[in-house]
Amino acid sequence: MTTETRKPVRLDDLDRNILRALQADAGQSLDEIARQVGSSKTPVWNRIRKMRDAGVMGPSTVVVDPEALGLEACFFVLIRTSEHETDWQQKFLAALRARPEVQEAHRLAGEIDYILKVRVANARAYDVFYQALISEVRVFNVTALLSMEEIKSTVALPV
Amino acid sequence: MTTETRKPVRLDDLDRNILRALQADAGQSLDEIARQVGSSKTPVWNRIRKMRDAGVMGPSTVVVDPEALGLEACFFVLIRTSEHETDWQQKFLAALRARPEVQEAHRLAGEIDYILKVRVANARAYDVFYQALISEVRVFNVTALLSMEEIKSTVALPV
DNA sequence: CCTGAAAACAGACCCCC
DNA sequence: GGGGGTCTGTTTTCAGG
């Protein structure tokens, strides 16, 4: 069993400023971040380490342009189901996690049970995904919303 | 005026493997990436530079745990509007881009015109956001879907 | 286009304040 | 807990095959 790091860390202004800088560009040098937040190398490094250990931030990643990979279609999928047994749910979650085209999956409150964000090459590829999904698990109703334009997409949280 | 980098770059297998490694952890050393993809430092570095220059990948970032920042509520907002003049649209887009709690905004095909993903501290904070938004621009119908559980959330695209 | 070495650089850890 | 220096490893560059 993996020990989930769940320490309740208090973040002060310096921590938050560092997070902001790292979210903007994680490739910056410590000196540069230190300059931006009005501090010096060592404190910045100590806080980064602290926040990493506490699980406040995950590993750094690069954001890749989907179009460069030929992923030109983005769907939001609204799912209603009639099944709510743990058994069904486990199977459904496993299916979602296994599919790399699913970028986000949330269980919702209210009439709609789940929402997915799915990135695929085109409408045809979405249909392949959809058929595969409903063959794995029973769902009651599925609505796919096709994105025409990505107005905004950011991984940065307001710090 | 910024020159939008829009070169159509062909990515071969080595490029894609490098992207996969960087998406998993952008903090790895070149040697380690080179080892993973079965190549050597310099070629890996050349391709990274090429892809950066071509805009295939953006700057590296860190993924921050929303709960650590006290952002415990996530809403998907479905918006219908009756207004479709460019003037209204410009104002709407500007409002979305200006609000840091909006993590994603897409213009959709079909009955629903827009979908937003909004991260806030709690339901109260969402209402503040919502009231502010509808006071800035007229919308016809708004449905907010509250996320109960984030089943999956990844920034990594299938490469 | 890759290999290997050399130079510039930044990250990790120290002691002192 | 922050300031500054130092050592180590990494990034970046470049000559050569």
UniProtKB/TrEMBL annotation, chains A, B:
InterPro entries: ArsR-like_HTH (IPR011991), AsnC-type_HTH_dom (IPR000485), Dimeric_a/b-barrel (IPR011008), Tscrpt_reg_AsnC-like (IPR019888), Tscrpt_reg_AsnC/Lrp_C (IPR019887), Tscrpt_reg_HTH_AsnC-type_CS (IPR019885), WH-like_DNA-bd_sf (IPR036388), WH_DNA-bd_sf (IPR036390). Pfam families: AsnC_trans_reg, HTH_AsnC-type. The keyword Transcription regulation applies. SMART domains: HTH_ASNC. One of its GO terms (biological process) is regulation of DNA-templated transcription. GO terms for cellular component: cytosol. Keywords: DNA-binding, Transcription, Transcription regulation. CDD domains: HTH_ARSR (cd00090). Residues 11-72 form the HTH asnC-type domain. GO terms for molecular function: sequence-specific DNA binding. Transmembrane segments: none annotated. PROSITE patterns: HTH_ASNC_1, HTH_ASNC_2. The keyword Chaperone does not apply. Gene3D superfamilies: 3.30.70.920, Winged helix-like DNA-binding domain superfamily/Winged helix DNA-binding domain. This is Transcriptional regulator, AsnC family. The lineage of its organism: Bacteria, Pseudomonadati, Pseudomonadota, Alphaproteobacteria, Rhodobacterales.
